[in-house]
Amino acid sequence: MVRHVAAVLGHESARTIDRERGFVDLGMNSLTAVELRNRFAAEAGVRLPETTLYDYPTPLALARHLGTALGVDGDRAPEGIFAELERLEAAVAAAELDQAARTRLAKRLAAVQWRLESGGTAGTTTAALTQATDDEMFALIDQELGIN
């Protein structure tokens, strides 16, 4: 959501948007409000009411409302996680990564995904997985599957 606010206001990054500052104070007007609603409708497939920015006057309030409306449980998925994810997406989009950096980043993201899907916790397991070579990972998989 914040990246859409940044885009309609002409900011290069969502990081420049204060999530607790009012839309009007951020420079939103009726035309940019319509553009924001249209962008969100195109991405999420949900048409927002015309009064949305008045009913939820800050990006944070709107994000919380949309999370509830779309069935995202705020207790299971704290808003801060999604804010950090948006910042990460913006950073990746802006970064000029060589192949080695892209591979390293992909491994780290895969480790995060694995932890998320398995219900694992942060710790040394993730660090070990992100630093493992391909051969070490295949050996671990073989061991887990009982293939020797």
From TrEMBL:
Residues 1-70 form the Carrier domain. GO terms for biological process: fatty acid biosynthetic process. Keywords: Phosphopantetheine, Phosphoprotein, Transferase. It comes from the Bacteria. InterPro entries: ACP-like_sf, PKS_NRPS_Biosynth_Enz, PKS_PP-bd, PP-bd_ACP, Ppantetheine_attach_site. PROSITE patterns: CARRIER (PS50075), PHOSPHOPANTETHEINE (PS00012). This is Carrier domain-containing protein.
